[in-house]
Specification:
alpha+beta, Alpha-Beta Plaits, 4-stranded antiparallel sheet, 4 helices, 4 strands, globular
């Protein structure tokens, strides 16, 4: 029962974050596709002594995610001081796809179910848009 409650809370928090933090790009002057991409930051906490296992599971998941439409890139980061702190830096072409179809893929749903075995709970999720690009 507790596992179902954790999974339900995980899903509800993700959906709420997606709804509350959602944005609509107002930059109509840029034709550069990369500036219209959405960046999603997801901060996870692995259970004690399960950091390496969690990373391994993320790698398996991301091998499937990268085949999805509108996927651009994902960077998997691990805190060098504490391997139970995991950050995903994701770039997608379409936030609407991310918040609907991506969230309902079989591989992501299975990951969310299995994650109760190695994560402490749902991630901290935030969405970001490009405001300015500075290059050398």
């Amino acid at each position: 029962m507790k596992a179902n409650s954790r999974l339900a809370s995980f899903f509800i928090l993700i959906v709420l974050a997606l709804v509350l933090i959602g944005w609509v790009s107002s930059d109509n002057t840029s034709n550069r596709r990369s500036e219209k991409n959405i960046t999603v930051l997801l901060k996870f906490k692995a259970q004690p002594e399960k950091g390496e296992h969690a990373v391994s599971e993320f790698v398996k998941l991301l091998d499937k995610v990268k085949k999805e439409p509108h996927f651009v890139a994902i960077k998997l980061h691990v805190d060098p001081e504490d391997n139970t702190n995991i950050l995903l830096y994701e770039t997608w072409e379409d936030q609407a796809y991310y918040t609907t179809e991506h969230m309902n893929t079989r591989h992501l749903q299975a990951f969310m179910e299995d994650s109760k075995n190695f994560l402490t709970g749902p991630p901290d999720v935030s969405f970001w848009k490009v405001e300015n690009v500075f290059k050398k």
